[in-house]
Each structure stands twice: as C-alpha cells, then as structure tokens.
Design brief:
Subcellular location: Cytoplasm
Organism: Rheinheimera aquimaris
Main location: cytoplasm
Distance between the termini: 53 Å
Strand order of the largest sheet: 9-8-10-7-11-12-13-14-15-16
Cofactor: Mg(2+)
Structural class: alpha/beta
Family: Belongs to the MurCDEF family. MurE subfamily.
CATH class of the largest domain: Alpha Beta
CATH superfamily of the largest domain: Mur-like, catalytic domain
Number of domains: 3
Helix content: 25-40%
CATH architecture of the largest domain: 3-Layer(aba) Sandwich
Strand content: 15-25%
Shape: globular
Number of strands: 24
Amino acid sequence: MPVNAQQWLALYASDIPPCQLNQLQLDSRKVSSGDVFLAIPGVQQHGKQFIAQALAQGAALVLTDEGQYEDKRILVLPELMQLLPALAASFYQQPARSLQLVGITGTNGKSSTAFFVSQLAEQLAQKAAVIGTLGYGPCSKLTPLPNTTPHYVDIQRILSEAVAAKTQLVAMEVSSHALVQQRVAGLWFDATVFTNLTRDHLDYHGSMAEYGAAKALLFTPQLSRAAVINVSDEFGRQLAAQSQLPVWAYGKAADCRGFNRYLAYDDVLATEDGYQLQLSSHVAEYNFYLPLLGEFNIQNVLAAMSSMLVLGYDLTTVVAACSQLKPVPGRMEQFKFAQNFTAVVDYAHTPDALQQALQSLRLHCKGKLWCVFGCGGDRDRGKRPLMGQLAELHADHVIITADNPRSEDVLSICEEIAAGMSPDGSYTIEPDRQSAIKLALISAQEGDVVLVAGKGHETIQIIGSEHRQYDERAYLRQLVAEMSA
C-alpha cells in the first residue's frame, strides 16, 4: 500500500522529492527502501542521531522536529509531535474508522479480557484480532510485540493490516505506561474496559495514586464512547462515580446495585473445570456455566460480555457464545497428569494476581495446593516478601524459584521472598525453575493442584543479559508425556 509523499504531506511541504512511501519507521534499524524514518525524541535519545543511518538504508523521507538540513529528503516540522498521531492515521488511510475498537486497562486481566472479547466476536460471526502482551493479530496466529501497547505509529500500521485482512473488531490492551506516554493518541474506542487496580509498576509510577491516575486517562470522551467498569474493585467504583462516559458496570451482584446498566454474578459454585453461577443484568437473568478456572475469569468474561453489549449485541446471544470460551494461553491453563493431579500455568506476577489465583484454585482442589513462583529482578522489590507471605497463607506447599532474575542474583531474590514467610514454614527454595517445577510434580499426590505462576505465555527467561529460550507450557506438556510413560 504505497503512499504518495506529496499528497500525504501537501499541507506541510511542497518541495519534497516525488516518491512513493512504504512504511513509517520509528527504529532506524528497521528502515527499508522507500520507508519514512521518524526522527523523534525517544526515552533515552533523540532519533535525529540516526538520520544518516536511516538514509543509508534507503529511507525515502525523514521527518523530525528539530535541526537544520540541506537534504530535501529531511523535513523539519517543529510541531511534529503534536501532528504525528494524525499524520500516522492518514498515512495508513484511517484504519480505525473501519474497525470496532475495545480498549482494556487494569493491573490484571487485560490479556484474558481481550482474548475473550475476540473469542466472543468470532462466535458471533465477526472476524476479530487482539493487540497486547501476547502479541497482535488473530488469537490463533499472533505476532510478538516488544510492549503490551505499541507506539501509536505502530498501532496504525497494525490496524491497517487488520483492515486488509477484513478484520472487523480489535480488542487492545492499554497499559498504564502507554497512557502516560500517549501511545494511544489519535485513537477513539467504542468501549473502554477497566478490570482492577492492584500493586504493580510502582518503580515507574511512584505511587498507587499516580498509577490509578494513569489508568483513568483512558476513560475520557476524547478516547472513548462508553466505559465498562469493574465495580467490585475499589478504584473501579471511584472511576464509575466520576466517569464522564456512559457506564456499564460489572462485578458481584451486591456491588452492581444502583447502576442503570450492569452485568453481575452471584451464587457461584466451583466445579472441577469451571463454575456454575447466577448471571443477572438490567434486562434478564440466566443460569450460567463458565468452562474456565479462576473466579477472576468470571469477572474477565463479564467485562468481555459487557463490551459486546456496548457494541450492540444481544445478551442472550452473547450468553450462548460463552459456552465455547477457551482458556487464554498461559492464563489458568490446565495440564492433567496420569497420576490424577493437575498443574496450572498462570502469568500471575503481582501480589493480587497470585492471591487470586491461589484462592480460586483452592475451590477446585480436592487435595493439597502447591505454588511454584519467583519474582523478577530489577523490578519492584517491595512486593517480594508480600508475595511470599500470600503464597504461604493460601498454599499448602510453596517452592520459591527464579522468574526473570535479570541482573540480580537468583538466590538473593528467593531469600527476599522468603523473608515474608514463617521461618519454619512449608516452603523450599530451588533457584532453577525447571527443577522447582519437577520437584513439585513428583511430590504431588492424587487430587492435588500445582500452580506454576509468573511466566505464563512467555517463551524466554532473562538471566543476566541473556534471553534464554524457555517455554513453560511446552515444558509442562513434556512432563505430562514423561510422567505418563
């Protein structure tokens, strides 16, 4: 889809060389012949330092916000950072106008909610895609992303590809970092979802107040048409009360009272592989079965269902579609062993997520509940003893191990986690993650559940500066085969 340079920039320049343009690039290393290099301020340095490299690699045009250049291929627009969201959208021919967009923010549940929105849309004959932690594209064929929410320039390219693939709906995770850094500038969502707010990313935001304020940025008339808010979350209730948008509340039945539009659950009964519950709304009530583990997944599914209602779908049709929902890769994903115990892989890497995972699995567990987890290095150290305390409180046996230690010593991280636990508690430290998992599995008995938390869908482990290939789900499948032989 080449773009005519003169037509695209007619309002800003008349003397640029005539050429056809292919892609907008923020990284000079990715520039190919015919691309536009955007030499703009970055987190650590300014892109103008890489203009020569981009031109050498075939850039047909460079846009930057400062400097003086004789080369007519370099266009200086002092107001470029204000213009760029609109420029990126026009370059890719306004793809968002051809799509229904659902934006999802919150500490936990973003990926799951996005996947459930996409799955429901597919069940309702809509071609759908996701953008988020697990990648972008159809759920069955994701392309990896370096960040949960890409830069708005990359988002426009991804949305353009979605339109070309005849996609009709895109569910996008919107991180707090992205909101502060305005990575969704130029977008307008048909629905925005708030899942919850618990401790995370304080190394970036500094305080829970600032973290919450970042999340709230998504719920404005400039970015969204309607708000879908978890009112069983304390911050969610504040957000709903202050919202300038129409609110669709979801959560526990007692918390949804007083809202004009809501989707609520009550009378929850855990089964071996899911939940039976009473689903109520402002229009009807249903006896509802959800084939997923984890009570938080009930809330994630309600968020997805509410989003579909905002988009105009009939509730009875949406309820029927929920019977076909599948677990999200690495999110409460079950692995059944011949010895009649179950391992569950989950991405839980925050105190709240770990606590919720363990509390939910306790309801499905007939025997002992095991927990294998660690904490990432070079990140919020304050949560380590707290996660140790919660693991000890909610699990019968805990094995502390590596997560992504990065530049820190693995054993030191494990000891900081153990500092929140009783000195004589039922825990073991095994720094090697695969050995820790295997230790839990060979120790488990019939009816036990082993939660392996922290890595989820990830396929690398960061040790020092090395990114090692490590797919926890593949490793569990390997152990299922080995232990069944």
